[in-house]
Structures are given as C-alpha cells and as structure tokens.
Amino acid sequence: MGTVTPASSVEAGEVVWLRTDEALASAGRRAAAELARRVGLGQDRSGDLALAVTEAATNLQRHSVDGALALRVTARGDQADIEMLALDSGPGIAELSVALRDGSSTAGTLGVGLGAIRRLADTFAIHSLPGRGTGLYASFAAPAVPDAPSVPAPVEIAGLTRPISGETQCGDTWAARGQQGETGDQAASLLVMMCDGLGHGPLAARAGDEARLAFRESRAGDPAGVLADIHKRLRSTRGAAVAVARVDIAARRVTLCGAGNIAALVMAETGRQTLVSTPGIVGHNVGRPHTYEAALPRGAALVMHSDGLRSRWQPGDFPGLLAVTPALIAGQLLWQAGTHRDDAAVVVVKVPS
C-alpha cells in the first residue's frame, strides 16, 4: 500500500507468493527475514514479523481448503514497509471479535492468535466471508529515513500482481503518480495505469516494464495523452491492454482512457459503475481514444484489474470490504475472483472522506 504526493509515484514491485504446503511457515519466515534484512527492520521487529508470519501460515495450513501468503516491500512516504497478506479459501471466521482477542488461538497454533498479530503489526486489517474464506493484512514499518520530507497525501492506493501458475514473471502490472495542485503542497489528482502484457512469461513482462517506464516518463496530464505515450513506447514489444485513469481528488471524479481488456470501475457498497476501454492492442493497433467519466462518491473506491480476474464479480459478493485498507481489498478481489490460468493484477484507490 502507498500514499501519493505530488512528486512521488508508486508501482508494482516484487511479490513473494507462497502456497500452502507443509513447509509454508518455514518458507515464510525465510522470505520475511530476507525482506527484513533488505530494509533494515531491526532484530526485535524482525522477530515480531517472523511470529506473525508463522501464526498466519499455521492458520492457513490448518483451516483453509487452499491458501497463500504474499510478502513484499513497499514504499510509504519516507519509509519502507514489509507487508503480509494471508489469503484463503475456507470456512471463514464467524465471530471476528472473538478471534481477534489477544491470546485467542485455534488448536495447534502457537497460542498467540490473530489478536497478537494485530498488536504486533503497525497496520492490520482482516476481512472474512463465511463459507468462502478470509483475508488478513499486516504491515511492519522500517525506520524512517532521517530528515526525509513528509508530505500528507489524501489518497491511499495499493495493488497486487500474481503470475500465471508455473511462471515467475508477471506480464500484468500497474503504476500511479501524483499531480501537483496550484498550491503545490499536495496532490490535486492522481494518474493510475493498469497494463496486461499480451500472453505471459518474459515477453509479456517486458511489455509491462516498458509500459511502466512510459507512464513514469510521460509529461501528459490527461489519460488519453498518457496512453498515447505508452502506445509509442510499446511498438517494439508484443503489445498490451492498457488503461489510464485520472482521479480528481477535490471533485471526486474519475476519467479513464483505455484500449484492450482492462476492467475499471467505481466500487460502492450498493453496486458498481463501469468505465469502458475501447478495443485494441496498445503498441500495435489503437483506434481513436475515448475518455469516460464517473463520480467517485464518499466511501467508494476505484478498482482496475486485468482479465486475470473474472469480470462478473459484484460488490455485494464482498460485504464490508470497502471498510478495510486498499491492500486487503486488492488481495481479497484477486484471491476470490482471480484465476490461476492467467497473469493477474489489481489496483485499488481510495480517497478518504
């Protein structure tokens, strides 16, 4: 998850995906230790992270039909976070308030329980769907960079990517960057890109990498202009489906221009409003671009995803999901609506009330 300032950007990074098997806890601890070393988390906090990973992994093994841990490092303002997502298909948790009591643990775990994970983490969120599964999010912050500028940002954004089964590189990717307002003190709008490189594997990943570079370097301020710059950059690749959205924070409106099979929608508790992309392959054949617009009401979120997620999911399938952090929204959508037969990516934007 990240917040966006006028001069900052966030984009997809490496995600360590670990599926449930007998070695999940030990593999999770090793991956967490490497990430902790990379960001200088410190011995005590590294121990807290290891404990949280072990408890989450043990719960996945004992209570899920299928599950996974996702670990990664993300930038947040002047510091880095290690984020953990535990996602499963299982019975869900009927009484979250009971499960979150510190020290309450299911049989056979370490006895620290979900409540202790919440206490140990700097940020914690959980969402459960009875009969379908549970998603848990926890982040552990590394020490802040001394004297780094801290600019409050009014937007929260998080995305998640997962390669097709059997591949290590993902051709689906996302990125976001802030646009400065007249006062110069905070982001007045946000540009967000979702890209699905055609096919999968290294060539698809190269298209995604080039799309992120073009998005980062583009000086255009509108979605159609940014899409045109990405189109030029992808001519030497196999091409991609790409959509670019602009979130006007003060007006709470979204404009989008895209080509290819990218889903973009405003998700609210009562339903969803779709923003349409036109047919085409960015980098090869893109027709005349069309820009679509929608309101972003309070309590709603902008969701963009590749066709690695099924398109027919509805907000009503996920009661209470909009109340949690964007990282967990992205995780639950990818896990519950995703397919392992294709690369997958999803990004979620929330503008606090």
UniProtKB/TrEMBL annotation:
Domain PPM-type phosphatase: 169-351
Annotated InterPro entries: HATPase_C_sf, HATPase_dom, PPM-type-like_dom_sf, PPM-type_phosphatase-like_dom, Ptase_RsbX
Cited SUPFAM superfamilies: ATPase domain of HSP90 chaperone/DNA topoisomerase II/histidine kinase, PP2C-like
Signal sequence bounds: none
UniProt KW keywords: ATP-binding, Nucleotide-binding
Gene Ontology MF terms: ATP binding
Pfam families noted in UniProt: HATPase_c_2, SpoIIE
Protein name, entry field: ATP-binding protein
Top-level taxonomic group: Bacteria
Keyword Protein biosynthesis: no
Keyword RNA-binding in record: no
